[in-house]
């Protein structure tokens, strides 16, 4: 199996910092802005953003974790049932600016499902999407990120692997992995 490094630990850290500065520039009033990490992997990215926002300006943000498992269009099409993650949102998003955070934007199906799942918490004023990696030419839905760490060109036979130190890897890194052909 071949691997190609997309972002190393330093580049991921710089990307997280850039995201924070972009949020500060684009959202004057964080009283009307909430961040939602898409479970499970977007929640890890969101945690890093929240931590860095506190370091940069000691900004306190409303944030939560959103699971969209049961809103996916492929939920009943799998051989094994999907395992849901916990949704942790203790506020309404009615008339709020919502920033959805995820690690990799691939087909757009998770984001579409997340928008359906969000409605249970109110109708947002605006929804923005923040992703570490945008797999450019793989979209099934017309969904594009507002904040993007890196755009990559990938084939269907490849996948993007996001590794976090907090999950037992040596360091934070993002790889494009080529599946072995037999």
TrEMBL record:
Secretion signal span: none
Superkingdom of source: Bacteria
GO MF term list: glycosyltransferase activity
Keyword NAD appears in the UniProt entry: no
Keyword line: Glycosyltransferase, Transferase
CDD domains: PRTases_typeI
InterPro entries: PRTase-like, PRTase_dom, PyrR_bifunctional
Pfam families for this protein: Pribosyltran (PF00156)
Domain Phosphoribosyltransferase: 8-165
NCBIfam families named among the record's database cross-references: PRK05205.1-5
Protein name (record): Bifunctional pyrimidine operon regulatory protein/uracil phosphoribosyltransferase
Gene: pyrR1
